[in-house]
Write a structure and sequence with these properties.
single chain; alpha/beta; Rossmann fold; seven-stranded mixed β-sheet; 7 strands
Amino acid sequence: MKLPLHVDWDGTGGHRGGSARPVLALLHGFAGDGTAWAPVRAGLRSLGPTLAIDLIGHGKSPAPDDPRRYRMEACLDDLEAVLKGLGIPAAWWVGYSMGGRTALQLAVHKPHLVRGLVLESATAGIASPIEQGERRKADEALAQSILTEGMEAFVEQWLNQPLFEGLKRLPEEQLAAERERRVRQRPEGLAQSLRGMGAGAMQPVWERLSEIDVPALAIAGEDDEQFCRLAGRLALAIPGAQMLRIPHAGHMPHTENPRLFLNGVRGFVLGHERESIADLA
């Protein structure tokens, strides 16, 4: 079966049955790809096999012209096809930013695919129609800018946002890698992604979070006040969910403070999967 998205899968098929170690499916943020999980991926493998997915329009995944392929519902269908193609009934979805939003949409619309959630710097959407409309206009303006000014200019502007101030504390080599990952993306794919899956286009699911019945951990860097508030809201709205603040980190805790990010994720997943992980350790 041909997969609709590019994946980097370090496990094998046949993860059927309750005793298999959990699969951790990793979803990157906007203008990233599966390689963004490099700082923590090796550590996550202690819990189970990992599956890094390049979302539509990103990395090595297709960047088709058809705008319908970038809608959230099409993205969720792609992710379901990936799991089916690899013989994985359900996964722990570890999503950063756009990837976290996507993981929440999966949990609401395709709950059979979700074994657990780790939501890093994520939101369930923009609840106010007025604010959502304003964000949609801003996303369209950014899409046009990416297409007309190119990737170098976009990345310079993108990483200079206060949101990514914490990245400036990284070693120069690592910061350069963060820039390069974004520069190598395709302008057309990013523009279509903004239009189809951006925060302005995504339908909010705050009112449906009470339906989620799997373990959920909402993570935010303590220097990112906005997403600390959002993580707190998620933890309150999802039954039994927990929140974790990562010190000395902003919007990208898995990159800015990978050790504490890993400690938190490992402890949370192990607490819910101890028997499954022990079975095959």
